[in-house]
Design goal:
The chain is an alpha/beta fold and 400 residues long. The protein has helices spanning 2-14, 25-33, 57-65, 67-71, 86-90, 165-172, 185-190, 258-266, 290-300, 327-339, 394-399; strands at residues 37-38, 41-42, 97-103, 106-111, 114-118, 152-154, 177-181, 198-201, 206-209, 212-217, 237-241, 246-249, 271-275, 309-313, 342-343, 351-352. It has a 7-stranded mixed beta sheet, with no helix packed on it. It is globular and about 55 Å long.
């Protein structure tokens, strides 16, 4: 037995730090007691969700390697990042709520006098390795050290584009708290975050940070780092409620009926941050299209599509799906216009207050080939201006 333990310890020592750590001990015992853990894995709401791409590996490879579509999955120039400064975010928001989208799913929310940082990813790649994996398409709007004090960091799940080793290790040197789904604390403890700074929640559990109540709510996704996916860490969306304002961050999720339940219990919301990028027909259960994102916003607002402001997230920063880089922006403009939903389109790093003037300029258009509207825009859509297509785009421009 001693030899077996020694071998196990040796294997753990060889495990790359970016893989994190598997839950064990009392943490694993708590996971087993969760009503959402069954047959050795966490369960999705609404039954089984396909977490692996459907179709053949060959079909998926053909889509990703196609020369014409590959060139459309990245901007044709430098993304116009807003040069965020500490001065931009040091003055209290006039309305009590300000959001700063840092790219992908990273958002700084200043709400009722406190600062919440969702899914911070400042690393160059969303990968366990510094030399491989999807690389940023634009720089972080400001250095992490220049962000200033943060009251709580909220993590939605443990995938590399949401839980970033270099970012967490940098934040581990501060005194911020971390609110994470059940099991994810094992990763953070391995990376230097003390257990006393962790608030590890199952779905429907709430923790208090200052004057804020943070509640982990269901999402339809999956988890996993390392070479195998044990489904032993939970994924979540999050509700943050202050004395005056309420906000919602979707994390990664497919569309499901639980959005209406979350809205009925915790809404309506002043702002929702909704995942609308990296969708594909190959994985329809675990990511939402922009149309589904607008639908989820409507559900969260009790059926009123005009309530609150929608901030699209999980797009524009990493190339993670076959769709064109700018498609989430164009599709969201059309879907929100049809529904009568207020949507904000800030440049990465551009602070805005949902109760104030919203950034709505389609800043991505000068960097994008014409987008083929396969979703059939309707009467509320805001058409893109005609632009001379680049060489190689004539066939697609003709299809519009």
């Amino acid at each position: 037995m001693a030899g077996s333990r020694s071998q196990s310890s040796g294997l753990r020592a060889l495990r790359p730090a970016a893989f994190g750590a598997d839950p064990s001990g009392e943490r694993m015992a708590r996971i087993r007691r969760s009503p959402h853990f069954k047959d050795g894995v966490f369960q999705n709401p609404g039954g089984l969700a396909r977490t692996r791409p459907s179709g053949s590996t060959l079909d998926l490879a053909k889509v990703f390697l196609d020369k014409d579509t590959r060139s459309r999955r990245a901007p044709r120039g430098s993304v116009p990042v807003h040069a965020t400064t500490l001065a931009d975010i040091s003055r209290p928001p006039a309305t009590g709520l300000r959001l700063t989208w840092m790219g992908h799913s990273s958002v700084l929310a200043e709400i009722d006098g406190q600062r919440v940082l969702f899914d911070p990813v400042w690393g160059e790649r969303c990968s366990p390795f510094p030399f491989a994996g999807p690389r940023r398409l634009h720089p972080a709007p400001l250095p992490l050290a220049a962000l200033g004090p943060v009251d709580v960091v909220v993590i939605s799940h443990d995938h590399y584009d949401h839980l970033d080793l270099p970012t967490i290790k940098a934040l581990a040197g501060t005194d911020t708290l971390f609110a994470v789904p059940l099991g994810v604390g094992a990763h953070l403890e391995r990376w230097g975050v003390s257990a006393g700074r962790l608030r590890e929640l199952d779905w429907h559990e709430t923790t208090k940070v200052g004057g804020l109540a943070l509640t982990a709510t269901p999402a339809r996704h999956f988890c996993g780092r390392g070479l195998r996916n044990t489904q032993h860490t939970l994924w979540a969306s999050w509700v943050v409620a202050g004395e005056e304002h309420r906000i919602y961050h979707s994390g990664d999720t497919g569309y499901f009926g639980g959005f209406a339940d979350i809205g009925a219990e915790h809404g309506p919301f002043d702002a929702t941050m909704i995942q609308v990028g990296a969708y594909s027909d190959f994985w329809p259960d675990i990511h939402m299209t922009p149309e589904e994102g607008v639908r989820s916003h409507r559900d969260l607002q009790g059926g009123d599509p005009a309530a609150g402001v929608l901030l699209p997230i999980h797009w524009g920063t990493f190339n993670l799906a076959p769709h064109p880089w700018a498609e989430p922006g164009e599709w969201m403009r059309d879907a929100a216009g049809e529904a009568g939903t207020a949507v904000a389109f800030p440049r990465p790093g551009e602070p805005f207050e949902p109760a104030g003037g919203l950034p709505t300029e389609p800043w991505w258009r000068p960097l994008s080939a014409p987008v083929v509207r396969h979703w059939a825009p309707t009467r509320g859509a805001v058409p893109a201006p005609a632009a001379p297509p680049a060489e190689g785009d004539l066939d697609l421009a003709a299809e519009r």
